[in-house]
Input
Amino acid sequence: MFNNQWGQGVTAASDNAVKALDETLMSYLGLARETGDLLKKTLSADADMVMGHCLKGYFYLLMASKPLLERLPKVLAAAQAAAGAASPREQAHVGALKLWAGGSEKAAVKVWEEILADNPHDVLALRLAHHAYFYMGAAGSMLDSIENVIGDWDKDMPGYGFTQGMRAFALEETGQYDDAEAAGRGAIDLNPDDPWAVHAIAHVMEMQNRYDEGIEWITGLEPHWVAANNFRYHLWWHRALMHLGRGELDQALELYDGSVHDPDSDEYLDLCNDASLLIRLELRGRDVGERWQAVAEKAAKRTEDRILPFVDCHFVAALAAGGKIEQAHGMVDGMQAQGGIFADVGAPVAKALIAHRQGDSADTVRLLEGVKDNIVTLGGSHAQRDLFNLVLKDAEGRA
Ligand SMILES: [Fe+2]
Output
């Protein structure tokens, strides 16, 4: 047993392997592109490291792409095989991975919270819980989760800045904009290579209609976040929203073409950015030309994935906009069959987006009004879910 940089025991073959794991975790928190390579380095230093396999499984689930998810059982088996002599914290992670892989993310969150109760510096559990609450639309729990442990952290600990970035975002999503901004600025002062903290403040500025400042903030820090993984597209998306806020449709469309849309990506967040920005441009009267086709083609390859209710709604919108109405309806059927939030909230919202595309304003209003109070359970941020309000308002205006 070796100790990681937070003083937690890690079952590993060597100190070098643990150092590589530490680096991987820091890279994950910084949304850096080399995270996957660092994980490979970790597992080549110790092919049987339980936390290495666990992290691999978590990453596969976070990326939620079908080829990765098909390989997940093998990764889980490797984690379980390596867990025999592992610490209770590590075994709990393997348990959480098993639950999440089995579709019970809510149960996995409980395990991460239990890990945090005993190990408040377990940044992996902290970040995974943060992510899960975000996609459950559970902003209050997202804030509680970080506030419960933050007292145990001090500034000199590795990753402290990242915890402030998470705190900033949770404060923003619970509407505490001043505190969010203070925490986010504090995080950036400590470590400007923190795209999630940049993002938290972008959200504050978006919510407060501070478009000039927002553009300046995002652009000013671009040298730091431009090296991020595909999350960089989401920051450009935020900048495009601010141009829309200023009524600058041309700039928003230019950003779409040059920065937000990656022709080679089928990552779910990227497709959500694309669909959301195109709809917002259309709602403001801008013809987006043939741009929908590429997005619809990509969504068409992922209709069976059932990634997240929030994501699936965007995919359905893209399919409908790209003329793939049958596939859009097929995807709604799949959401319905999935049950839970997919069926109760996702499917009506997705149907509304199809109806809106087809010019059926009355149906759009009826469907969106029916789920208005539960739309938060789709997950995502206030700024992202605002798309559904904008569509509703548009339909109400037409109806
Ligand atoms: Fe965002």
Notes: The CA atoms of residues 99 and 107 lie 6 Å apart. The beta strands are 2-3, 9-10. The mean pLDDT is 97.
